Amino acid sequence: MKGPVGLMSVMGIDILVDGLVPGNAFTAGAKAGILLTVALTVEVLFLGLTVASELGEGGASKWKVVGSTAGLVLLLPLGALLGGPIRAMPAAVQGGFLAFGLIARLYLVTEELLIEAHETEDRPWVTAMFFAGFLLLLLLDEAVS
Question: Domains in the chain: how many in total?
């Protein structure tokens, strides 16, 4: 599928799977769950902005843009709820689910996002924002400890 429908389908699946990651991470510990929830919330914010922009450029009404974006955002807590039954499984299975979710994230970042990031001219402020975000998550990790 191409256009807004294809974009929303792929993002919907991504956000639903992303929701499984913090749902599983809370089984590993509250600290891991909180950090992943914060990081994924920021990611979903930018995904929502992308969807809203794409739909707006496609001529969709404001209500359709808001409704579609809200529907996608609600997939994150739905995914977290779907990850809840994993708590009843043995620790090795829980670790497998968490590892799968994290590796899926790493694959997406290394295979898709980093390649796309280097298709444009390098700008120092973009690199600085990457490190600022990394530093912010590191400080959040220390604050939660």
Answer: 1
Residue 116: pLDDT band with limits 50, 70, 90? low
What range does the domain containing 80 cover?
3-144
* Helix-helix angle 124-144:30-57, to 10 degrees: 150
Q: pLDDT of 55-113, one tens digit each?
A: 888 888 888 888 888 888 888 888 888 877 887 888 888 888 878 877 877 777 676 66
* Distances in whole angstroms, Cα of residue 125 to Cα of each of 45, 75, 119, 121, 130: 20, 32, 16, 12, 9
Is residue 35 within 8 Å of 133, Cβ to Cβ? no
Helix, strand, coil shares, percent, the chain, to 5: 90, 0, 10
Q: To the nearest 10°, the Cα dihedral for 57, 63, 66, 67? A: -120
Residue 109 to residue 47: CA distance in whole angstroms: 14
